[in-house]
Amino acid sequence: MRIIGGALGGRRLLAPPGMTTRPTADRVRQALFNILGGRSLGQPGRLPADAGVLDLFAGSGALGLEALSRGAARAVFVEEDPGALRVLRDNLHDLDLLSRAQVLPLSIDRAMDRLLSRKDATFPMAVSFIFADPPYREGRLPALLSRLGAPGCPLLSDDTVVVVEHARVKGLPGPGPEYGALLRDDERCYGQTALSFYARSVTSADG
Fold first, then answer.
1. Which of 7, 52, 58, 83 is deepest in the core (most CB within 10 A)?
2. What is the pLDDT of residues 38-64, one digit of tens each?
3. Residues 135-149: what's their mean pLDDT?
4. What DSSP letter does each residue of 136-187 carry, written as one string?
5. CA 124 to CA 134: how far, in whole Å?
């Protein structure tokens, strides 16, 4: 596994052992960041220099690390598995990215409680990109997306893009098309992997 593009393109990444985590495939990451760069800057693969990134279910940190390599200013990683945390911190150290990153060693529920609290200074402003890549079989995405789409969510701005990775299941759309203020506006499939993209609806009650 490696960083695909940007300033750190080609650098190797450590991956957690075993089957607890499932790193996003290189070709899926490449496609994802081409899409995000096109949406935000009109430059596939490049991210805004002031972008803040939230990498949920971070595992090795591959998505957030890729974002930092491609120009994002800061990333917050949420991961609770001890083995994955060791690998994530080693990757941040090896890539000299510790000063641009924060690791929250918490469960997703506790991390969201903290991040959604207006008293928390982790993200004093809305973030640009939120990545969520939970274990496919655990069904955590609907509850997570509902919390992000709740009225007044402090993590969202009109420009925030939420990306969820999920299994492509024939006959099913994956995560639903709308969660409160969040509306799915794009979906791409790569083999058995799907990426769903969400943005805040212009007609949402809190917009």
1. 58
2. 998 888 989 999 999 999 999 999 999
3. 87
4. GGG--HHHHHHHHTSTT-TT--TT-EEEEEEE--TT--SS-SEETTEEEEEE
5. 25
For Cα atoms 89, 77, 179, give the angle at the middle one, nearest 5 degrees.
160
CB atoms within 10 A of CB 138: 9
Q: What type of residue sits at position 83?
A: G
Residue tagged 């917009």 (tokens)? 207
Assigned token pair, 11:
């650098």
- Beta pairing class for 182-190 and 74-78: unpaired
Those residues with Cβ within 8 angstroms of residue 139's Cβ, 6 or more apart along the chain or in another chain: none
pLDDT tens for residues 60-117?
Answer: 999 999 999 999 999 999 999 999 999 999 999 999 999 999 999 999 999 999 998 8
Residues whose CB falls within 8 Å of the CB of residue 144, separated by 6 or more in sequence, listed in order:
56, 108, 112, 132, 134
Q: How many residues does the chain have?
A: 207
Across the chain, which distance is largest between two alpha carbons, in Å? 44
